[in-house]
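Anyone have C-alpha cells for HD domain-containing protein? Sequence:
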Amino acid sequence: MSSNSPFPSLLDGTLSLPVTPLIRGALEHSKKITSPTTVNHCIRSAYFAILLSQKLARKDAEPLDAELIVYSVIMHDLGWAVDKSLLSKDKRFEVDSANMARTYLQSTKESGVWDKHRVQLAWDAIALHATPSFSQHKEPEVMLASMGILADFQGHFIANQLITVDEFKAIVGAFPRLGFKDQFIGIMCGLCAYKPETTYDNFVGEWGCEFGLDGKGTGKEEYAKNRLASTFPRTLLPTLIALAEYENEAPAE
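Reply: yep, here.
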C-alpha cells in the first residue's frame, strides 16, 4: 500500500482497505459533508466490514466486491450532514445517505463503470444498514456493510465474538472515536427535532423518547406522545375497523 494511502494496513499487515480513485473521492466527499467524528466512525466500520469478510469467508463463495463494501460504508452516514440544507425533510437519514451516495456515483468520473445492479447494491447497503432484519438476508456485500457498521457500536461484543479485543483496539487506535457516543446521541435527537415524521417508525425515535430533542431531555414527553400517535396500531387499526363494514356488503352493480 502506498505511503500516502488514507488507510494504513493494520494487524501486522493482514487488514487493509482497497484504495481506488472512487474510494479516495468518497472519503474526501464525506469529510466535506460530515463531522470528523462521523468520518472516523465510517472508516472504522469499513475496516470492521473487511475484517468480518475475512473471518466469514467461504472457499466456495464468489469473490466479494470489496470496493462496493468500502464505498458504501464510507458514505453510509451522509444523512448526518452538518449542513442541514443538504438533507430532505421527508426521508429517513439512511435514505438520504443512499440517495446522496448514488448521486455521487452518477456524477463522478472516479466511479468508472457501475452497472445498474452494482449501483442498487450500494444503495441497498446504505439504506438498510441500520435494519439488520433486512440487511442480514441480502447479498453478502449488503450484509457485511451492515455488520461492519454495527461492529463499531458493539465492538468485540458482537455475536460469537467475531472481533477480538486486540483487533478492536487496533482499529480504534488508528481512527479514534472522538466522543462518538455523545455525538451520536446528539445526531439522533437532532433528527427527531429536524424531521420527526421520518423517525417515528424506526430506531431513531427511540432516542428521542429517551433523550428528547436536544439530547438533554427537552421536548421528550411531547415527542413520545406524537410518536405513539403515529404507531401502526394507532394509524392502521381505525382504518381496518372502518373498512370492515364493506366485508358483508353486496358488491356494487
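The chain has twelve helices and no strands.
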